[in-house]
Design goal:
five-stranded antiparallel sheet
């Protein structure tokens, strides 16, 4: 799977139950210095945590090529590789030629002639190498003063607080201190008073053999006006969406007030310009920090809707592709009752890669 951007190319390879998975990231300038702490942070938060998460346990410690450690880590090659071993696999759980509802199984069978164990290249497992690449991009972005922070705003019908509920977040972004706090939470949320209610909802879904979806919001602080994006097909929304839909569970993306624009009037939804501390700012941020596809200096605000995990313990209707008849399917394997908390670092990774590509593009234009 390959994501081709303006300056970066990301290739992700392997399958969920293969010996390994990995990534190749082309375009990071040779000589770039790294600590790799952001990459480690993403991988750590992506690991299964909580009673609602899959019992599958992977260490996800990548072997990196193209980076040398000499006191600090330095990029030494035009392509960085990261290889992650799959150690906790159970291929026998996927022996039947029966497509799992709402998985890629049937579409992949029609395309490839087979159903791969654990979803193969379509599995959420493939977001681990995405986090390797995203961690590198995010660290280099942060050196330029751009910070990316995601959190869970909704689980099922339960709202956990979002930028639409907080004028401070909408207008000024998320502080570094609050960012650190969110990273420590098993379910990162702005309204921590909802923690017990959220955990109870997830445990209820697990106990019922079912799953639940939700929404991940992402706030980018420090995106300067005019620094990212361009018109039409080169717009910032387009590039961010391109990367976000690489996270398998994402089924919808909106920016700022998003679909709320459809119910509003211009007088309500326009963001008036004002002077604040000698800088041009907006009095509101319905547009999510983007006008005409270009960053306008306000925090970038976006929401990604995550579907409920399709793998559930409840019996479902399906078909036996070899016998050509209908059947009842009870999915084996190990799965998350809710993928949303583990998707938070994946959203940060996708957004970070898109923005770092924009940064390299602008630096190239100036050069």
């Amino acid at each position: 799977m390959i994501a081709k951007l303006d300056k970066l190319t990301l290739e992700i390879f392997g399958e969920s139950h293969a010996e390994s998975i990995g990534m190749k990231l082309f375009g990071v300038p040779v000589g770039s210095a790294l600590t790799l702490e952001r990459m480690k942070d993403l991988l750590s938060r992506r690991r299964a945590r909580g009673a609602w998460a899959t019992p599958r346990r992977e260490e996800d410690e990548p072997v990196l090529l193209g980076i040398r450690r000499d006191g600090e880590y330095v990029v030494t090659e035009p392509v960085i590789q990261g290889i992650i071993a799959n150690r906790d696999v159970r291929k026998a759980d996927y022996d039947e030629v029966v497509p799992r509802p709402s998985h890629a199984d049937f579409a992949a069978y029609m395309r490839d002639g087979k159903i791969s164990s654990g979803g193969g290249r379509f599995s959420g497992r493939m977001t681990a190498p995405l986090c390797v690449a995203g961690g590198i991009a995010l660290e280099l972005l942060e050196k330029e003063g751009v910070r990316v922070c995601a959190y869970v705003s909704d689980i099922g019908k339960l709202n956990l607080g979002g930028y639409g509920d907080s004028e401070e977040v909408s207008l000024w972004g998320i502080s570094e201190e609050r960012e650190r706090e969110l990273r420590q939470m098993p379910i990162p949320m702005l309204d921590s008073s909802k923690r017990e209610e959220a955990e109870a909802l997830l445990l209820d879904a697990r106990g019922a053999g079912d799953s639940v979806g939700g929404v991940v919001e992402c706030v980018v602080t420090g995106a300067r006006a005019g620094a990212f994006g361009d018109a039409m097909f080169e717009g910032l929304e387009s590039k961010l969406s391109y990367m976000l839909f690489g996270v398998p569970a994402v089924k919808g993306v909106e920016f700022g007030s998003g679909f709320g624009f459809g119910a509003g009037r211009g007088s309500e939804m326009n963001d008036a310009f004002v002077f604040k501390d000698g800088q041009v700012r907006c009095a509101s941020n319905h547009s999510g920090g983007i006008n005409g596809g270009i960053s306008n200096g306000m925090p970038l605000l976006l929401r990604a809707a995550m579907r409920p995990t399709p793998s559930i313990a409840l019996a479902q209707r399906s078909v036996r592709l070899d016998a050509q008849d209908e059947c009842e399917l009870k999915i084996k394997g190990r799965h998350d009752a809710c993928i949303v908390p583990r998707a938070v670092p994946c959203v940060e990774a996708a957004v970070g890669i898109a923005l770092y590509d924009e940064l390299l593009k602008r630096q190239g234009d100036k050069g």
